[in-house]
Automatic annotation (TrEMBL):
It comes from the Bacteria. This is GNAT family N-acetyltransferase. PROSITE patterns: GNAT. Gene3D superfamilies: 3.40.630.30. InterPro entries: Acyl_CoA_acyltransferase, GNAT_dom. Residues 3-143 form the N-acetyltransferase domain.
């Protein structure tokens, strides 16, 4: 078994992440996925990392590097998901480790993410990976 982590940059590489990403984001449509990712890459600097096992995507992270007044440069994880068929094999931890290394190399001060309050299993994973809860995230819908 060969494990590798690679940036998904070509249309084919991005498309290969869809099945796993859809497990976290079921509203996504396959025909719109690559154009949506491409648009976010161009407008917001989104980056896509894929963990592959023998060439098959098993986990995906989308993220961006941001600058904030209160902490400077940071890595912000938009999405992190391991294929439900192969969870608990350390794939998410490998992606987090890669993102931490990249953040350090870019001079970032921290990594941030938001996780819904109902995702208790994910929260246990984040705590094991050294994340803590520091604030509330407020939102309102615009009509």
């Amino acid at each position: 078994m060969t494990i590798s982590i690679a940036y998904a940059e070509t249309d084919d590489e991005i498309a290969a992440t869809f099945e796993v990403m859809q497990q976290l984001r079921p509203h996504l449509e396959q025909t719109r996925y690559v154009p949506m990712i491409r648009s976010l890459m161009a407008s917001d600097g989104l980056r896509l990392l894929a963990l592959l096992e023998d060439g098959v995507v098993r986990a995906v992270a989308s993220y961006r590097v941001m600058n904030m007044l209160y902490c400077g440069s940071l890595v912000y994880i938009d999405d992190l998901v391991a294929d439900e068929r192969v969870r608990s094999r350390g794939y998410g931890a490998k992606l987090i480790s890669k993102l931490k290394d990249e953040g350090r190399a870019l001079g970032c001060s921290e990594i941030q993410l938001i996780s819904r309050t109902t995702r208790e299993q994910a929260h246990r994973f984040y705590f094991r990976e050294g994340f803590g809860i520091e604030c509330f995230h407020f939102r309102t819908k615009l009509q």
